[in-house]
C-alpha cells in the first residue's frame, strides 16, 4: 500500500494508490464515508488502516499535481533520529564509529511535506542536507527482540534531516541544530513494509542539490539496521504506533566538503530512495510564525531568492 496525506485549499484528506491503475484515490475530511485520520488509524492497528484504505480506493481519483502534499503522519508521537549510521559519513565527520547508536530527537514542529519550502534560517547560513530512510512503527512495544522487530514496522518513507550546523555543534548534544522550524521534509508518501525488502535493506539512496548528486549510497550500508535500532531503542523507550525512526545519512554532507556546500535560498534539494519515492523541497526565506504559531503572509518570489 502507498498512502499520501494532502491539502486542498483549507481542507485536508488522504489517498491510496491503486496498484491496478497507479492512480491515487481518496477524499477530503468531511466526506460522506470519511474513514478517519491517518494517525488515528495507524494507532488503531493494521486491520483498521487496511479497511480504511479499501474505502479510499473506491473514491474519486486525486490528482497529486493539483494538491499540496503533507507529511504522511500529522503528529508522530516520537521522532527518533540516528546519527553516524553510515561508516563513510562517520569518517567524513571526524568521529570514531560508535558501538552504540547515536540517538537524538526531532519535534513535529520541524516537519514539512514534499514540495513545501525548507525554511532558510535567519540565525545562520549553515543549512545542510541529509537524505535518510525513515521507518514508521505500526505496532508499539518495549523490549522488542531483534527477531521480532520488523513485525512492528508499518512502512517506510523518505526524510531529509536538514541541519543548521552552527547550532548543531554549539553544544555536545545536537537538539537545537536539528529542530529549526520547517527543516524536516518527510514524504512524499508512506509505503507499507510488504512492498519492500525486509528492513528496507538493499535500496539505493541518493540526495541531489540543484540536480547535482551529493550523496549516493545503499541502505544495506547502515551500521545499525532497522531491526537493531528497534531492539536498542525499545530496551529503554516504549515505542508507540506512529513513531518515526529516522535511520541516518551517508557521506556527502555539505559541512564535510572543502569548500563547504550549504544550501541557500533558491536551491532545490531532492532525496530519492529506490522503491519508495522522491522527496523534493525548495529552500526559501520565509516569514517567522507569529506568537500564536500562525504563519505570516508568504514572501514574494523576489524575496525568497535574495
Précis, in short:
With 306 residues, the chain is α+β, with helices and mostly antiparallel strands.
Order of helices and strands: EEEHHEEHEEEEEHEEHEEEHEEEH
How large, in whole angstroms, is the Cα Rg? 19 Å
Structural class: alpha+beta
- Overall strand count: 18
Number of helices: 7
Residue runs with pLDDT of under 50 for 5 or more positions: 296-306
Which CATH architecture of the largest domain is right?
A: Alpha-Beta Complex
What count of domains describes the coordinates? 2
CATH superfamily annotation of the largest domain: Fumarylacetoacetase-like, C-terminal domain
Mean pLDDT equals 94
Question: Helicity range of the residues?
Answer: 10-25%
How much of the sequence lies in strands comes to: 25-35%
CATH class of the largest domain: Alpha Beta
Our measurement of the CA-to-CA distance between the termini, rounded to an integer number of angstroms, reads 41 Å
Annotated CATH topology of the largest domain:
Fumarylacetoacetate hydrolase, domain 2
Biggest sheet features: 11 strands, mixed
Choose one word for the global shape: globular
GO biological process, one term: carboxylic acid metabolic process
Protein name: 5-carboxymethyl-2-hydroxymuconate Delta-isomerase
Keywords: Hydrolase, Isomerase, Metal-binding
GO molecular function: hydrolase activity; isomerase activity; metal ion binding
Could you characterize what this model shows?
Residues 282-306 are annotated as: Disordered. Keywords: Hydrolase, Isomerase, Metal-binding. Its cofactor is Mg(2+). GO terms for molecular function: hydrolase activity; isomerase activity; metal ion binding. This protein has helices at 38-44, 46-57, 87-92, 146-149, 165-168, 226-234, 301-304; strands spanning 2-8, 11-17, 24-28, 68-70, 79-83, 102-106, 111-112, 118-119, 127-128, 131-137, 153-160, 163-164, 184-192, 204-209, 212-218, 244-246, 268-273, 277-284. By secondary structure, the chain is an alpha+beta fold. Strands 1, 2, 3, 4, 5, 6, 7, 10, 11, 13 and 16 form an 11-stranded mixed sheet that branches. A 5-stranded mixed sheet has the order 8-18-17-14-15, with no helix packed on it. Helix 1 packs across helix 2 (46-57). Residues 296-306 have low confidence and may be disordered.
Amino acid at each position: 500500500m502507498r498512502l499520501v496525506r494532502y491539502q486542498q485549499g483549507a481542507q485536508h484528506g488522504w489517498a491510496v494508490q491503486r496498484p491496478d491503475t497507479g492512480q491515487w484515490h481518496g477524499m477530503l475530511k468531511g466526506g460522506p464515508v470519511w474513514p478517519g485520520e491517518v494517525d488515528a488509524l495507524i494507532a488503531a492497528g493494521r486491520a483498521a488502516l487496511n479497511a480504511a484504505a479499501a474505502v479510499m480506493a473506491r473514491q474519486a481519483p486525486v490528482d497529486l499535481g493539483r494538491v499540496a502534499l503533507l507529511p504522511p503522519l500529522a503528529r508522530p508521537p516520537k521522532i527518533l533520529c540516528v546519527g553516524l549510521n553510515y561508516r563513510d559519513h562517520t569518517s567524513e565527520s571526524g568521529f570514531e564509529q560508535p558501538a552504540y547508536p547515536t540517538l537524538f530527537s526531532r519535534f513535529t514542529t520541524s516537519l514539512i511535506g514534499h514540495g513545501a519550502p525548507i525554511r532558510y534560517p535567519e540565525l545562520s547560513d549553515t543549512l545542510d542536507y541529509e537524505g535518510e530512510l525513515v521507518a514508521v512503527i505500526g505496532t508499539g512495544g518495549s523490549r522488542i527482540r531483534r527477531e521480532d522487530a520488523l513485525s512492528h514496522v508499518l512502512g517506510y518513507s523518505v526524510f531529509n534531516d536538514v541541519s543548521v550546523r552552527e547550532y548543531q555543534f554549539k553544544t555536545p548534544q545536537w537538539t537545537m541544530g536539528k529542530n529549526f522550524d520547517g527543516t524536516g521534509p518527510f514524504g512524499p508518501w508512506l509505503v507499507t513494509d510488504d512492498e519492500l525488502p525486509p528492513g528496507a535493506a538493499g535500496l539505493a539512496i541518493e540526495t541531489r542539490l540543484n540536480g547535482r548528486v551529493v550523496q549516493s549510497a545503499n541502505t544495506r550500508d547502515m551500521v545499525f539496521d532497522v531491526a537493531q535500532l528497534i531492539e536498542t531503542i525499545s530496551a529503554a523507550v516504549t515505542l508507540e504506533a506512529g513513531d518515526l525512526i529516522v535511520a541516518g545519512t551517508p557521506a556527502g554532507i555539505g559541512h564535510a566538503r572543502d569548500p563547504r556546500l550549504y544550501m541557500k535560498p533558491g536551491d532545490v534539494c531532492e532525496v530519492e530512495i529506490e522503491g519508495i519515492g522522491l522527496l523534493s523541497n525548495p529552500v526559501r526565506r520565509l516569514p517567522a510564525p507569529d506568537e500564536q504559531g500562525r504563519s505570516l503572509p508568504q514572501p514574494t518570489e523576489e524575496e525568497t531568492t535574495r
